[in-house]
Amino acid sequence: MADLTTEFLGIKSPNPFWLASAPPTDKEYNVRRAFEAGWGGVVWKTLGMEGPPVVNVNGPRYGAIYGADRRLLGLNNIELITDRPLQTNLEEIKRVKADYPDRAIIVSLMVPCEEQAWKDILPLVEDTGADGIELNFGCPHGMSERGMGAAVGQVPEYIEMVTRWCKQYYSKPVIVKLTPNITDVRKPAAAAMRGGADAVSLINTINSITSVNLDSMSPEPTIDGKGSHGGYCGPAVKPIAMSMVSEIARNPETQGLPISGIGGVTTWRDAAEFMALGCGNVQVCTAAMIYGFKVVEEMISGLSDWMDEKGYTSLQDFVGRAVPNVTDWQYLNLNYVAKAKIDQDACIKCGRCYAACEDTSHQAISMSADRVFEVIDAECVACNLCVDVCPIEDCISMLPMAAGEVDPRTGKVVQEEYANWTTHPNNPGACAAE
Ligand SMILES: Cc1cc2nc3c(=O)[nH]c(=O)nc-3n(C[C@H](O)[C@H](O)[C@H](O)COP(=O)(O)O)c2cc1C
Q1: How many A from CA of 107 to the centre of ligand 1?
Q2: How many domains are contained in the chain?
Q3: Which of 6, 73, 184, 226 allows an S-S link to 16, with CB 3.0 to 4.6 Å?
């Protein structure tokens, strides 16, 4: 059976599923129950320095975006870092770590961008016996207005400076958690690496307003008539997170920098995809908040079954395997030709493919009087819109044409020329590729 044991930065955990820093990891009670349910590790909800208490709003903190079946697709929150006393958290971390030596406990931290503040808190964290720290440079609301969280994560020089302090005053692994609220995520990742970070984790939440109440004319969640942007997470952010992860994984400047993948991980497949893109493990928040801690059972069994099927015996067999296949647009093979094919047995004759293609795209689907829908190969550019709008999975497929066949749309022989498109001189990216 596949071995899910993970050694991320030398920190062992029985599986690659860690809970991300958030309400599920805010207290001993939760973390113990999470470990009993099977989670491999946790990143404890972000601790701040001793001082003025952190005070959360006393109204709704969350907003959501739903699919048609009211399944939650995206979650928005305006919550701050932990509002529990530092000392209480430190004592709880120490107790839980002592009782669960085989699980990973990482402590998330956010203190002001001053050396003394880090120098003060790091020995306290070291004393808990936790396995490492994660620097929260990503929280996009509440703390960022006070010069912390995303306010640090958006300035590579600050990231490098604070990471260096942490490496100086703390002996265990330092993970830098990145904000997605930035144009080019490679820059903060490279800064973290220059500062000596052992790894980066991403993404934290994305600035968002999920809805506006059209009676009170205020963004939701609304606190006494006003709302502010929050942080967006859940399944909706996974594509953004994976793109950012892949940018870091394939950037020569950050080559070899371990990555912990976060953002919308809900199933074993999501986790496997992040890991194929170079993540040594994954962190989960929204899925646990929606479905409870036991959701990890399906993640573990699903990943293990898939690995057995594929003949992978350890995670290392597939971590990073998709990275070489992430490329820039100009390296895509323009001689590759596919055509849509509709499975008539599966088709429910709803006509959504026809409406989409006829009205907005390439007029490449015909509709007969008795509602039989067929692809017109001579018009089909294989854009995939019909596949995307079809309500029946696998009813419409994109089938590649074989080399030597003639594309009825262009009259050209498929893939006969330029078998190796990437290095062909007519490829605008060929020079860069060499
Ligand atoms: C209610 C809530 C509170 C959060 N608090 C923190 C926090 O204190 N520190 C932190 O680094 N990230 C925090 N996050 C962000 C998560 O750790 C994670 O990066 C984000 O939710 C994306 O993962 P997901 O799509 O699995 O939820 C919070 C997220 C939510 C929903």
Answers
A1: 14
A2: 2
A3: 6
Ligand 1 atom closest to Cα of residue 203: 19
Q: According to DSSP H, which parts of 258-397 are helical?
A: 268-276, 286-291, 295-310, 352-360, 385-389
Same domain membership, residue 361 and residue 346: yes
What percent of the chain shows pLDDT beyond 90? Answer: 84
- For atom 12 of ligand 1, which residue has the closest CA? 21
The predicted structure's pLDDT at residue 159: 95
Question: 1 in a domain, yes or no?
Answer: no
Residue 149, amino acid: G
| pLDDT beyond 70 at 281 | yes
CATH code of residue 426: 3.30.70.20
Distance 355 CA to ligand 1 centre (A): 40
pLDDT digits (tens, 9 = 90+) for 211-239: 999 999 999 999 999 999 999 999 999 99
Residue 247: domain span: 6-325
**Beta-bridge mates of residue 233:** 75
Q: Which of 296, 325, 354 is the last residue of a domain?
A: 325
Quick one: 347 and 317 in the same domain?
no
**Secondary structure of residue 407 in the 3-state scheme:** coil
In a domain, residue 78? The reply is yes
The finding on whether 258 has its CB within 6 A of some atom of ligand 1 is no
Residue nearest to atom 22 of ligand 1 (CA): 263
Report the CATH number that the domain containing residue 80 is assigned in CATH. 3.20.20.70
Answer whether 23 contacts ligand 1 (Cβ < 6 A): yes
The verdict on residue 197 lying in a domain is yes
Q: Is residue 72 part of a domain?
A: yes
Strands 174-177 and 211-213, by their bridges, are unpaired
Q: Are residues 240 and 314 in the same domain?
A: yes
**Tens digit of each residue's pLDDT (9 = 90 or more) over 400-420:** 999 889 999 999 988 765 555
Res. 59: pLDDT tops 90? no
Instruction: Give the Å distances, CA to CA, from 394 to 215, 247, 398, 399.
Output: 42, 30, 10, 12
Whole-number average pLDDT of the chain: 93
Catalogue the active-site residues.
Answer: 139
pLDDT score of 332: 87
Take atom 19 of ligand 1 and give the residue whose Cα is closest.
204
- The finding on whether 285 has its CB within 6 A of some atom of ligand 1 is yes
Nearest 10 degrees: Cα torsion 248, 253, 259, 263:
-20
